[in-house]
Specification:
The chain is mainly α. The protein has four helices and no strands. It has a domain of 87 residues.
Length: 128
């Protein structure tokens, strides 16, 4: 019996989506952050940057075109759905700037990872 390891490329994004959903379902008291200005935006930037990269992995593995657009858009849409979901959680609110931080984080991380990927891919090709 053969298992296709390519299917595992979806696992990081699924796990991170579950973690984000769990954290956004928590009441404010449970997920209380230290009172540091902008910390929540930095966390959104980082989490959705990672999610964007995790969406980008299967695009590389399956050689899907428009990798950057697809992974950033997927991350952005999940961020929008998460903010909508969060608006129903007691003690939480939905903020437009969180969505902006999600989008910018996904765009930045995916762009950087894609540049690194292309750089190392070209280095490997030129060394042959």
């Amino acid at each position: 019996m053969s298992f296709d390891l390519k299917k595992l490329s979806f696992l990081p994004s699924i796990l991170l989506m579950c973690l984000i959903f769990y954290l956004s379902s928590s009441t404010k008291e449970v997920s209380q952050l230290p009172n540091i200005e902008g910390l929540d935006k930095i966390l959104h930037f980082t989490a959705y940057g990672c999610l964007g990269v995790f969406y980008w992995f299967p695009c590389i593995v399956y050689d899907i075109s428009h990798k950057i657009k697809l992974s950033v858009l997927s991350s952005f849409l999940y961020g929008c759905s998460d903010e909508y979901h969060q608006s129903f959680v007691v003690g939480r609110s939905s903020e437009f700037l969180d969505i902006v931080a999600d989008f910018i984080g996904a765009l930045f991380f995916v762009f950087v990872f894609n540049c690194l990927y292309l750089y190392f891919k070209n280095q490997k090709a030129s060394s042959k």
